[in-house]
Amino acid sequence: MPTGHLRGGVRIAAVEFRRSLRTATNRVSQLLGLGFGLLVFGGMATVGAYFLVTLSPDLSGLAVGDGIRSAVAFQWLFASALFTQRVATVHARPDADAFLLTTVRPTTALVGLMLAELARAVAYLGVPVLVLAAALAYTAGSPATFLLVSGAVLASLAAAVVTGHVLGLTAKLLVARVPAIARRRSLLGGLAAAAFFGGYIVLQSAGMTTSGLGVVPVGWLADVAVLASPVGSSLPHAVAGLAVVVAWLVAGSALCARLATAFWLGDSVAPAVEAEQAVVGSDGADPLAAALGRIRVPSVWGEPSRRVAQRSILLARRAPAKLTYLILPLAGLFPTAIQVALGEASVPTRLLAPGLAVAVPWFAAGAFALNPLGDEGRVLPQTLTSLADGRAYVRGLALPPLLFGLPAALLAPAVALATGYGPTDAVLVAAAALVGVVVAAFVGPTLGFLVPRTDAVRVARGREVVPPTLTAMALHTLVVVLFVALPAFAALAPDLARATAGFVVGGLFAFPFDLAGVIPIADALRSAARAVVGVPLPAVRWGGFAGPLVAGLAVAALAARVARRRFEGYTL
């Protein structure tokens, strides 16, 4: 790479990194998320370093094998997927690209973007890695280990950044050049994410386990990290891994430069496709219905409610980026999903039916009903003045979750029958899922009225969305747990539900009072727990099932009234 590209790229990277830092510190939510991430990674690194230094284990009995190499390669694959997503959605172009690309070459701008992305990753992981590297160097008695560990991690991150830019820019270029892909970019993006998991299932069907990832050369950087320590390593693996990574950094950067030049300076079919998709049939009397295509919204609560429902569905379909927050809770399940796909862990099949019964109401209401005021955007004044009756608006907001959630909820009893449950259990699962959809559909808009969000959040360059607040998401999750998960739990596992209730009352609730010295209250709670454990199983099953469902329907009716009053009394 010419030194001119590198010098210019460093200056661009510094500007991009400062802009990212300023954006993160200007938003309280992003600042809290950044602090939480640093606290988690830093805390884990500190604990690990503490045990390394205080215990001073004998490292000579350890050796880098395929298991460690595959673990490093797996983390690199995950980082590459994360960088690919960021490039495809957020950092595909530099800020003020029309100005920047008239002053520097595209290659220089690309180097700046890649260095800025690497700097962001180092800002998150730099301190924890340095702490662990210092502790390992101290334990090994080798200062060179500190440099080797830090350098190996940096090389792995750099390779992931280059890989992410190659894949992300390739995806953006295909969207810009191929009309068929541009029309279906949201669907294809979802399929690509599914393919990421499906690839591991293919590996499992071929008989490979996690250790099979040890053939990825990036995993051989583990040998580089411990070359100067007593840990056993393979010098050929270290040399070959380092050589392959360096070669990929050079070749991948050159490929990125070509992709970026073609994407930034070439023509794009995306504007024409977006204009084509925005056009609805003018020969019909219902442009909203024409825009929805094959999706038909019934007029069960009158035409005003139907119009509100149609617009909610249309907004969700045309701005799928705002639904990405629904995927965030699944991030914590990623490692488990991979282990399951590789056959190294298993999920009890009897959890599938109740899990589906809980997931359907959560996703159905979360996709449409949690931020009605923010979804209205600039037309909120017109909406407030055009609908005199808030009842029609609330019903219209509840209609999309019902339209999509109720049919999806019927999958839960089918899964229950397929996973060994009896007909009675399947009926109970179906009832919990169906009632849960109804409850979530009417409680969701109320939560959106109580804790609305009207300020936009940028998810990509030049694109802003208005997702629900974290408070609304948390309360929505609590509603689903109370009125769907609990009755399903009591119906399918009454003995376990009874034992859990006794532990919560007599253990978790009583513990703070024991700690504070308020023994009478703690003893009363333990007595209540013993009474709970003594409740007959039929009473636990049917009472624990019917009680939350009836309470949920009552809460839904009350929530609909609150939402109607909030809408009718809302002022700008």
Automatic annotation (TrEMBL):
Keyword Ribosomal protein found: no
Keywords in alphabetical order: Membrane, Transmembrane, Transmembrane helix
Domain of life: Archaea
Transmembrane parts of this sequence: 31-53, 59-83, 121-140, 146-175, 187-206, 238-260, 323-342, 351-373, 393-419, 426-450, 470-493, 500-522, 542-563
Keyword Metal-binding: no
Protein name: ABC-2 type transport system permease protein
Organism: Halosegnis marinus
